[in-house]
Amino acid sequence: MSENNYLQVDHLVKYFGDDRAVDGISFGIPEGKFLTLLGPSGCGKTTTLMCIAGLHKPDAGEIRIGSDPVTSIEKRINTAPEKRNIGMVFQSYAIWPHMDVSQNVAYPLEIRNMAQSEIDDRVAEALKIVGLTDMADKNATQLSGGQQQRAALARAMVFRPRLLLFDEPLSNLDLKLREQMRVELKRIQHEIGITSIYVTHDQAEALVMSDEIIVMSKGHIEQTGGPHSIYARPVNKFVSDFIGVANLTEGRIVSNGGGGAGTIEISQGGESVQLPCLLADGLAEGDDAFLSVRPENVDASRQPKDGPRIEGEVIQSVFLGNCLDCRVKWGEFEWKVLAHSRERLRVGEKVYVRLDPDHTLAVRP
Ligand SMILES: Nc1ncnc2c1ncn2[C@@H]1O[C@H](COP(=O)(O)OP(=O)(O)O)[C@@H](O)[C@H]1O
Ligand SMILES: [Mg+2]
User: Fold this and answer.
1) Are 258 and 194 in the same domain?
2) Last residue of a domain, one of 237, 269, 293
3) Where does ligand 1 bind, in terms of residues with CB under 6 Å?
């Protein structure tokens, strides 16, 4: 709850009937940063965004933008959406087909009664930033999906809002365009420096674009952090499973060596092995936990190496050039392994699986 945050959301609750769509979440974002709400469909991302925009009234909580409390249920404050000075870009393009591109972008300035010369300057500037200068006179329906989203972005930022909110704006685009637009959107946001909140269920999108990611499920926050820490140090099973690919298996903490390091024991078919690992906060000796390790931090070889032994059988081996994408069966568990391509492992072979202890995590269930 930092005073330094430009946007601050505190203990936000929103019910639909008996459903708690947003379950008392708190977060903040410093000025100029790009924050992503990431989570599966139905976890409360859009509802949170709508509360910030003033389009939903929450049942409890507070929202502050700059020094302005825009929502406080306790203090009976709920500023109208049009007075919040927020720009929004949605999944559906939402640009008007009966207007040309520059008329679309000019609209928010016209309803603010701005002088025509100023409108012309601002529209030209916004179109330049999104790369649509040449399309200014085209009818909106003549634009491709990607161009329509750029026009929607130009319209959302032309009145220089305090905040930009994005709700899955790239979901309707095909994969290649989506990948281009991720980088493009992030570049534009960085260039104009408007504090932004972005909603997506796509973890790759979140990792590429965000300064900070909030992983949500079922109306609450599972983890907050930068892309690197969310990927490399998930704190629980949900985040580990939702972001990227991980080997996840049940275990128990057998020692806590201090300094965040410890040992986890995992078992399969009567065989147990103890592995050095990094412990997520809050895990203590004797706790149930999950072992989490990414395939790039698991190796398989014919010769045993030092350290704990996990012996299994190769059941899949796909040559990817720089590595082998393997599955190694150990009891009922299948290790996903990116092995060194010089190992040339074949299906049916017995191999030793080795986990990089610096990237082996014990996470909360
Ligand atoms: N207008 C609404 N009326 C009733 N239930 C809603 C409404 N909007 C969302 N919900 C419910 O609230 C939960 C969160 O929805 P939403 O915020 O849209 O999730 P997300 O954007 O993460 O997919 C879901 O269970 C959804 O069905
Ligand atoms: Mg949504």
Assistant:
1) no
2) 237
3) 16, 19, 21, 39, 41-47
Contact 86, 94 (CB under 8 A): no
Closest ligand to the CA of 21:
1
Compute, in angstroms, the gap from residue 293 CA to the centroid of ligand 2.
30
Q: Output the pLDDT for position 2.
A: 63
Q: Which domain holds residue 194?
A: 5-237
| Tokens coding 61 | 């909580």
Residue of 12, 15, 19, 165 with the most ligand 1 atoms within 8 Å of its CB, for mutation: 19
Average pLDDT over residues 17-35: 97
Both 223 and 243 in one domain: the answer is no
Give strand pairing partners of 212.
Answer: 35
Residues whose CB is under 5 A from ligand 2 (ion)?
A: 46
How far is the C-alpha of 23 from the C-alpha of 2, rounded, in Å? Answer: 21
Dist CA 164 CA 155 (whole Å): 11
Laid out side by side, the sheet with 298-301 consists of 298-301, 350-355, 310-319, 323-330, 333-340
Q: What angle do CA 153, 158, 159 make, to 5 degrees?
A: 130
* CATH number, domain containing residue 318: 2.40.50.140
Query: What pLDDT score does 4 carry?
Result: 85
Q: What is the mean pLDDT of residues 241-269?
A: 95
Q: Which atom of ligand 1 is nearest to the CA of 41?
A: 23
Q: Total structural domains in the chain?
A: 2
Whether residue 183 sits in one domain with residue 255: no
Between the CA of 197 and the centroid of ligand 2 the distance, in Å, is: 13
**Same domain, yes or no: 160 and 216:** yes
Q: Give tens-digit pLDDT for 335-353.
A: 999 998 888 899 999 999 9
Q: Give the residue from 217, 237, 257 where a domain finishes.
A: 237
Question: pTM for this structure?
Answer: 0.94
Measured by CA distance, the residue closest to atom 7 of ligand 1 is 16
- Please, which pLDDT band fits residue 269 given cuts at 50, 70 and 90? confident
- Looking at the structure, tell me whether residues 44 and 184 fall in a common domain: yes
164 lies in the same domain as 55:
yes
Q: What is the DSSP string of 148-167?
A: HHHHHHHHHHTT--SEEEEE
What would the pLDDT profile of 120-158 be if each residue is shown by its tens digit? 999 999 999 999 999 999 998 899 888 999 999 999 999
pLDDT at 94 over 90: no
